[in-house]
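Side project, low priority. Logging it here so it doesn't get lost.
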Amino acid sequence: MQAPVRYSPDVEDVKPDEGQTIEGLNETFDTILQRVAIDSGHAVRSVHAKAHGILEGTLKIDPSLPPELAQGLFAKPGEHRVYLRLSTNAGDILPDAVSLPRGLALKVLDVDGERLPDAEGTTQNFIFVNGKVFQAPNAKKFLGSLKMLAKTTDRVESLKVAASAVLRDVNEVLGMVGIESSTIGSLGGAPNVDPLGETYYSVTPFRYGDHIAKFSVAPVAPGLTALTGNKIDASGRPDAIRETVQSEMQGIEGVWEFRVQLCRDLERQPVEDPTVEWDEEEAPFQRVGLITARPQDSWDEARVHAVNEEMRFSIWTGLAAHRPLGNINRARNAPYKHSAEFRQRFNGCPIHEPGA
């Protein structure tokens, strides 16, 4: 196996028109934010608006990691409180019969070290989805897709439910012949799986101290792995996923491995194109810690308010040692902040980081 690539600023290729694309993202997210807020009377996130569970737990960093893995947050063993937010990726609150890719946002509390510019508080944030690649190679292409999705934000829910059923069937047929379509999944054709059994991926790369990496969170507790691939019947149950997770977490101790995939070849594991899957045989995921969530009420009212309403999750909130890399990540900074500021203004509810 090749040695991991050393991080240097020149691994990124910043294009001159990125600022213009970010302005377009902000404008398009505004369309989504405003329509949803006006329709419902409450502002939600511009992506991953609907939460299915808010969990509290701990991240225990493994001791005696080799030097290439003992980097940044994971440089020394220890234990941190964490919050986990399970979601789906739409920017409006849809019935769960519209099946979309799952998301997992992780906030690690009380993290020491040099912060990224404007990163308030003392947390390290990670954002994952249950797919290995992003749907667009760059922010400009993603903006085109987002504009199409924005046009459907206030469309009739029953049409979305019907379309989702058709797209799921299409995706299943494609899967039988070995084709996976992240685009069809993002439009409502994703399998309606139980989020507790899913493996999640950062999809985009990050600085990992001296190196470059992608991240993953994978279930390892038997109570979670028994749920992997389980489909949830959401017929007539708009919040079926939330209800399922709430019921299951009453009796499950959730345990997930936090894994790191070090870049070992910039040609074969590119920084700037997140549609390229990093081959796990060439660049394997390696465990660096363990996340544990005790049995709990995953829709506890106080915790939901504190995390879902009063916090934001941003990959740009964290350590300089885990700087987000690549065009898509650079384009996520301003829109995430923009979305949080809109929520704060509309709802009259201050958004802040623990420790800020």
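Brief comment: The two ends are 42 Å apart (CA to CA).
Revisit when time allows.
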